[in-house]
Amino acid sequence: MAWWLLCEPKSLKSEQETVVSTLLHLPELKRAVELAREGWQLFRERKQEVLKGWTPSRACVGMAAVQGTGFSELKRFVKGLESDLQAVHNALRYHWNNGVTEGNVNRLKMIKRTMFGRASFDLLRAKVLYRT
Question: Which residue among 9, 32, 112, 131 is least crowded, i.e. fewest CB within 10 A of its CB?
Answer without folding.
Answer: 131
